[in-house]
Amino acid sequence: MTALDDVRSLRESLATEFDDLYADLEHMAEAVRAAVASPGPVDATAAVGPFDEHQLQAMRDQAIDLLSRRKMADGAGFIFDPDRIAIAEQLIQWQVRSQAGGFEPYGFVYDADSTEYYDFMRLPWFETPRRTGGSTLAGPYLDYLGVDDYVLTATVPIASGGVFVGVAGADIPVSTLERVVLARCRGLDVAVALVTAEDRIVCSNSAHYLPGDRLPQDPESGTRMSLPTRVPTLAVQWGTMQSA
Is the pLDDT of residue 116 over 80? Predict the structure, then answer.
C-alpha cells in the first residue's frame, strides 16, 4: 500500500466511527422526541416533562448503551433547554465512565449565583443545534466547569413539533482520539494531522504539530481531505506540513 492508501484507510475508518456515533445519538434523540411529543397542537412555550422514573431510566440506559459500544466517547446523555424543562433537577441526564470501569451519573451546576455555574447555552455544542436545527461537532475545547477535560462534543438536536427542547450528545476526549489516530498511523512514513474546519490541529503523529496549533490549508503545507461523514466533522491533512 502507498502512503495515500494508508491515509485514505485512516480517513474512512474515522468517518465510520463518527457516523456510527451520530447514528446512536440520532436514535437517542428520536426516543426522547417520541416521549415529549404532544398529541395536540404544538405549544412553543409548553414545558418539557416532568419525566417519570421509567423515562429517566430509559435515558440512562441509552447513554450507557452508547458508551458501551463507542469506546471513543467518555460521556453521553441528554441536556435540555433550561427555558423549556419543567423540573430543573431533570435538566441534565448525563453518564460518564467511572474509575471502577462502569458508568455513573455526572452533574453540572446550572445556577447563575454559583461559582461553578456551567452556562452551557452559549457553548457551540448546544447553541448551534438550537439555532440551526442541525447536528454538530464542537471543539476541541476545555470543558471548564463541565467535565473539565479537553474534548470534542457531538450533539444532535431534539425537537417537539419543530420546537427545540434540547440535545443528545457525547464527549470525545482528545487524548482518546489521539490514541486511536496514533495506533492507526503506525508504520506511516508521512506526517498526519487531524484538523478542524478552523484549521486547528486536534492530534497528529508528529511531535512538531501540537493540538491547538493552526495548520494552514495550502499546497505547500500538505494535502487535506475531509472525513466523508454525514455530519461535517474533521479532516485529515498529510504530507509536508508547517504549523502557523
Answer: no
